[in-house]
């Protein structure tokens, strides 16, 4: 396994471009595929690209806030002590890899945004506590835990079809989560990944000569506010350094969260995760000045999301409006039978996800084709939906789109972790395939 990891790492270091260049290249690839496999001409493809370019603005802002609020919360004294105490459980590099893998997967099963941020933050704390642990593998292990999210309680596809009024209700009705998230085949996949992936990550530990460690001092992000004598403060400076202001604002936010959870139960979504992180950050930093200095420090890592997500939205526009995503899906359906259908649905979703890295967007594109095919073959509709869901989650492992927040928190580049993620992709692909072929 170490030989394979070393090989994949060399390949990625040598050939994987910066994520911004990657999305530019991907744009031209999709443009070319649209010309070859659909009836659209060059001008039409450019139109689809431009029309979709700003389609992810809301989601982009949500992802920026996931990064910023998570980063701000992580550099607060209270949160660092909590993560540090948990990180102290690891006494060796191997234990650090096992713990971060497991914690990341559990967090991702609860909520994908929560898992994406917590995994990276926890990995950084482990790098401070554990000597001689490969920093790249720590972050890769944290990110690899994200693969289980669509099989958890925040999975967008199973939750969509469980909601009355969803766009395909006339075709399939409302399907409860006991047939999708809590079905036997899905539980098998989740449990198998929870048991296997931490050890896969552990066995990927490079040799001592190839291990890359990081100086813990470089990971410290203490926010030191300039000290001003209380007597010398202006009225404005007194407000900026007021603990009462932060306390009142924090309590205001927590009261709303209490109301929200009391009314809707433990229903986490991206907005609520950001809301929670934001107001805990305000509380934990003590004063508005310290909080704003932490925000300023955190925003520096958000440039990749701000610039690259519109290009992915443009790619999604070309994929959906040109019909290219439908062509890809139909190609897999054409070679399926009633036994292999869910397996090929999973593979097709994995391919489409590479170009349409959004669970909800991908389902909107693939659902009409996959559901019609499933009905014609007499295949399970809930299992079909979950096959698309797992395909969407699976190839996220080698899709820089979702890695950007974790990489920004870690201070790494995509090529630093993708070599490890390739092997995780192969192993997890086998496990998920078994789940759809034999359960």
TrEMBL record:
It comes from the Bacteria. The keyword Glycosyltransferase does not apply. Keywords: Membrane, Transmembrane, Transmembrane helix. The chain crosses the membrane at residues 20-41, 53-79, 99-123, 135-161, 181-200, 244-262, 268-284, 305-327, 339-356, 417-438. This is Short-chain fatty acid transporter. It comes from Cytobacillus oceanisediminis. The lineage of its organism: Bacteria, Bacillati, Bacillota, Bacilli, Bacillales.
């Amino acid at each position: 396994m170490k030989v394979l990891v070393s090989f994949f790492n060399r390949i990625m270091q040598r050939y994987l471009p910066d994520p911004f260049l990657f999305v530019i290249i991907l744009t031209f690839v999709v443009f070319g595929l649209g010309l070859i496999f659909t009836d659209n001409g060059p001008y039409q493809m450019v139109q689809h690209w431009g029309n979709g370019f700003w389609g992810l603005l809301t989601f982009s802002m949500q992802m920026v806030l996931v990064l910023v609020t998570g980063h701000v919360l992580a550099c607060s004294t209270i949160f660092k002590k909590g993560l540090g105490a948990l990180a102290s459980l690891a006494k060796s590099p191997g234990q650090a890899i096992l713990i971060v893998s497991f914690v990341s997967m559990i967090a991702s099963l609860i909520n994908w945004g929560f898992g994406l941020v917590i995994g990276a933050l926890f990995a950084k704390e482990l790098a401070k506590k554990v000597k001689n642990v490969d920093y790249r593998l720590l972050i890769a292990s944290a990110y690899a835990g994200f693969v289980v999210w669509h099989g958890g309680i925040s999975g967008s596809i199973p939750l969509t079809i469980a909601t009355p009024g969803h766009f395909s209700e006339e075709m399939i009705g409302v399907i409860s989560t006991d047939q999708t998230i809590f079905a036997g085949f899905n539980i098998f996949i989740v449990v198998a990944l929870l048991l296997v992936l931490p050890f896969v990550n552990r066995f990927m530990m490079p040799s001592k000569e190839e291990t890359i460690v990081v100086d813990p001092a470089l990971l410290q992000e203490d926010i030191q506010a300039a000290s001003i004598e209380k007597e010398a403060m202006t009225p404005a400076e007194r407000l900026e350094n007021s603990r009462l202001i932060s306390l009142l604002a924090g309590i205001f936010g927590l009261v709303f969260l209490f109301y929200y959870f009391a009314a809707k139960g433990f229903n986490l979504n991206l907005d609520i995760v950001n809301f929670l992180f934001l107001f805990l950050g305000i509380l934990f930093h003590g004063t508005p000045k310290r909080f704003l200095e932490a925000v300023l420090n955190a925003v520096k890592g958000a440039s990749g999301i701000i610039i690259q997500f519109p290009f992915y939205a443009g790619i999604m526009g070309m994929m959906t409006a040109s019909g290219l995503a439908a062509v890809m899906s139909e190609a897999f359906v054409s070679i399926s039978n009633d036994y292999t259908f869910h397996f090929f649905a999973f593979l097709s979703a994995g391919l489409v996800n590479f170009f349409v890295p959004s669970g909800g967007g991908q389902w909107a594109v693939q659902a009409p084709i996959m559901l019609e095919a499933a009905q014609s073959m007499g295949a399970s509709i809930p299992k079909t939906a979950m096959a698309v869901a797992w395909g969407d989650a699976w190839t996220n492992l080698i899709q820089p789109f979702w890695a950007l927040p974790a990489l920004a928190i870690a201070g790494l580049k995509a090529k630093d972790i993708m070599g490890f993620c390739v092997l995780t992709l192969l192993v997890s692909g086998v496990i998920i395939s078994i789940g759809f072929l034999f359960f």
